[in-house]
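Q: I'm a student working through a structural biology exercise. My instructor gave each of us a protein and asked us to get a predicted structure, then write a short paragraph describing it. Mine is Cell shape determination protein CcmA. I'm not confident about reading structure output yet, so if you can add a plain explanation after the tokens, that would really help. Here is the sequence I was given:
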Amino acid sequence: MFSKSKIHEPGPKAAAETEKPKAETSVPSRPMGDFVPTARGKPAASVLSSDLTVVGNIKTTGDVQVEGVVEGDIRAHLLTVGETATIKGEIIADDVVINGRVVGRVRGLKVRLTSTARVEGDIIHKTIAIESGAHFEGSVQRQEDPLQGAGAPKLAPPAPAAPQDPAQGL
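A: Happy to help. First, here is the predicted structure for Cell shape determination protein CcmA. I'll explain a few features afterward.
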């Protein structure tokens, strides 16, 4: 009365498909000890510790936190100058937070001097905040785009003119 139907039985094509994923999952594509990042987010800020002295320029598109001494220019997205830090050079960054000492020009879209800041140099900014207690010697200039022209080389003083030989003019 009832006959066995072959409709619900897997055919040769379906059987091959079910076995294929099992074979792939049993063989790992890379060794188990490799690091696999889970997400690619914003990298952490680079930190220059308080016992570090850098002589030379620093350039990055990321964030930098300086706790030590830098003798050179710094270009970054966000620069945080720690309370123990001293920077002797030009700072160019989108955001600048100064808690320590800076001797040189500061260029930034947003510049903030905290109560522990000590700045000797000009500040060119779009927005600025200076907390009570901060020490600042220099001029402040607001520009719509303070980073514009920041990559231009600094002008050298003019060289003295060489004396001309009167015999050459004849």
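A: Here are two points you could use in your paragraph. The longest strand covers residues 74-81. The chain has a mean pLDDT of 80. It's a good idea to check both against the output above yourself.
Q: Great, thank you!
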